[in-house]
């Protein structure tokens, strides 16, 4: 079990020449044991790739740490590209200099013959993760800056005086001098903040699509045709150009120095588990899709006094307590998450393993 070792430094300062306040400063660094690459004790000698398999799932058959999948093929020339493995391939376990390696036994592509033609059947390579698991979150959720959200045009209403609008209805919207003819109707789901309550941005839900009717435009408004609705649109919903693009696939890689915090989720659940999606406070400049991170939980620091107390107990305030020692607990690993979509300030991650309920405030770091 990986453990984050935290050093506790007590900084002392005199105020007004009479009072002394002890300020607790926690300086964290990540210390992880070196990995001795091993297969699972119950790993099979061979595995036949099935339709619907993913690289992550196959790696989990052989490894307790599936993001280390590349280590198995890195020195193996028979698997030229591990992200191009196909149903029907037989993966065979072998050993080189005492270290496990994989080879692939692949049948020749099948052919369909007719009296005049022949056709080679080309199969699709398996995905890194099951995209059908991730797709609903990519298609129905996105994240933008708060300032950008406030500038989006709004849905205003229709001729019947309705407050909700279904597919195949005409609705008037604000005109913000855009020449775009297609929009997505989106609704604010939540404002996401970090643990210091600084706003990171706005999480949006995709409500429906909207097409501009050219004959209904003016300098201030535009007439919109609502279609492909996931739910009824409402007055005040916003109009977004794009924003739901996503990579078709990615390569898995372990996080190195990045560390951050779970700051939200897409489910409005108090506790999250496997295949739930979390929001972490790492943006596109910090992390890329395919990055695997560990999930860690850390208990409250403990005041080492005659009567030991947690720093978050009622009545205990760092600025008003006279204590000389506060010990930070180690952060223990409780799961893993794969980042699959990054924005300016945050990223979405799919929980692939969880030993307990995951919630806001949990740490993400090197797995």
Please provide a written account of the structure:
The chain is mainly β and 367 residues long. The chain is built from four helices and 26 strands. It has three domains: 137 residues, no CATH class; 88 residues, Membrane-bound Lytic Murein Transglycosylase D, Chain A (Roll); 103 residues, no CATH class. The strands form six sheets. Strands 8, 9, 11, 12, 13, 14 and 16 form a seven-stranded antiparallel sheet that branches. A six-stranded antiparallel barrel has the order 18-19-25-24-20-26.
Terminal-residue CA separation: 10 Å
Rg from C-alpha positions? 27 Å
Tell me how many strands there are.
Answer: 26
As for the number of domains, it is: 3
Helix and strand element order: EEEHHEEEEHEHEEEEEEEEEEEEEEEEEE
Going by helix content, strand content and strand pairing, the class is mainly beta
Parts with pLDDT < 50 across at least 5 consecutive residues: 1-36, 110-115
How much of the sequence is in beta strands?
A: 35-45%
List keywords for this structure.
3 domains; six-stranded antiparallel beta barrel; 26 strands; seven-stranded antiparallel beta sheet; 367 residues; Membrane-bound Lytic Murein Transglycosylase D, Chain A; mainly beta; flat
């Amino acid at each position: 079990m990986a453990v984050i070792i935290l050093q506790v430094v007590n900084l002392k300062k005199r105020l007004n020449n009479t009072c002394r306040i002890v300020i607790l400063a926690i300086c964290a660094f990540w210390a992880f044991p070196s990995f001795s690459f091993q297969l699972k004790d119950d790993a099979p000698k061979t595995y036949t790739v099935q339709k619907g398999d993913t690289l992550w799932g196959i790696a989990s058959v052989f490894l307790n740490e599936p993001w280390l999948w590349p280590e198995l093929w890195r020195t193996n020339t028979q698997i030229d590209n591990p992200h191009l493995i196909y149903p029907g391939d037989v993966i065979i376990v072998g050993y080189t200099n005492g270290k496990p390696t994989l080879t692939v036994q692949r049948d020749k592509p099948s052919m369909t013959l007719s009296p005049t033609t022949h056709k080679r059947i080309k199969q699709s390579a398996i995905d890194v993760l099951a995209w059908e698991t991730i797709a609903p979150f990519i298609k129905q959720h996105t994240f933008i800056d708060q300032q950008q959200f406030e500038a989006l045009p709004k849905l205003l209403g229709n001729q019947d005086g309705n407050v909700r609008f279904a597919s195949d209805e005409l609705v008037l919207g604000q005109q913000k001098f855009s020449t775009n003819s297609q929009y997505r109707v989106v609704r604010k789901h939540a404002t996401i903040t970090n643990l210091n309550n600084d706003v990171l941005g706005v999480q949006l839900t995709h409500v429906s699509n909207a097409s501009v009717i050219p004959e209904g435009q003016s300098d201030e408004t535009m007439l919109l045709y609502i279609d492909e609705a996931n739910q009824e649109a409402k007055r005040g919903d916003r109009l977004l150009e794009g924003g739901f693009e996503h990579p078709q696939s990615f390569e898995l890689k372990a996080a190195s120095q990045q560390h951050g915090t779970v700051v939200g989720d897409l489910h409005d659940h108090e506790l999250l588990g496997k295949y739930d999606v979390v929001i972490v406070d790492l943006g596109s400049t910090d992390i890329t899709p395919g990055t695997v991170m560990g999930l860690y939980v850390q208990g409250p620091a403990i005041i080492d006094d005659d009567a030991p107390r947690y720093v978050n107990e009622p009545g205990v305030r760092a600025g008003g307590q006279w204590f000389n020692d506060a010990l930070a607990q180690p952060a223990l690993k409780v799961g893993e998450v794969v980042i699959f979509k990054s924005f300016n300030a945050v990223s979405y991650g799919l929980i692939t393993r969880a030993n307990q309920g995951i919630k806001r405030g949990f740490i993400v770091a090197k797995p």
